[in-house]
Amino acid sequence: LAAEAYRYDATGDPRALLGVERALRGFDILLSVAQPGSGLLSRAAIPLSSPHSLRFSQTSSHYFVGSYNGQAWGAMGNISRDQYVGMMLGLGQTYLRVPSVRTTVKGLVNRTLEYLTQNAWCAYQPNGVDISVSFLEEPAMVLAFLEIGAMVDNGRWGALHLQHGAFQHQGTVSLI
After folding, report:
1. Distance separating alpha carbons of residues 169 and 165, to the nearest angstrom
2. To which H or E segment does residue 85 belong?
């Protein structure tokens, strides 16, 4: 996503814009399939109607079936910090470089941050019980995510971003 946003910003190539839009649709799917509307990111997803879905289902012990727009999808849980970081980097750079998709980016960032803040900066497995990854021991990542949030929706995330920034500068961290 970030690469396509950079390419679009540098060249205005309409193919880069199509790449941005395609990646944003992909993130929408990955943020929806595990728990629709929740903002929990899945590792990967494929429609069950795909001829590759059976092979996909056999690749991970974290496979589950979810849905997106009323269609059944096979997906993988067990998300990592790196996947959230990569997504947020791409969303932040896209917001800066591709003004025509800012509303979409804002929605994806808000869903992600709402999920993480509501779950004490932890991402759960799709079962909603087991933690897949926690950001509690990574306050710099929390601050970076909130900085992106404040950039795309300052009214929603600006105060929390400032609060976390102040705690970081005082040498203590609060992730409440």
Report:
1. 6
2. helix 81-97
Residues 82/71, Cβ–Cβ less than 8 Å: no
Give the distance from CA 106 to its chain's centroid.
Answer: 11
Taking only Cα atoms into account, the Rg of the chain, rounded to an integer number of angstroms, comes to 17
pTM: 0.89
Three-state secondary-structure class, residue 37: coil
pLDDT (tens digit per residue) in 41-90:
999 999 999 988 888 888 878 888 999 999 999 999 889 999 999 999 99
Tokens representing residue 165 in the block: 């920034």
3-state secondary structure of 124: strand
Encode burial over 79-103: b for 16+ CB neighbours within 10 A, e otherwise: beeebbeebbebbbbbbbbbeebee
Tell me how far apart the alpha carbons of residues 90 and 19 are, in angstroms, rounded to a whole number: 12
Sequence letter at residue 63? Y
d(CA 117, CA 164): 12
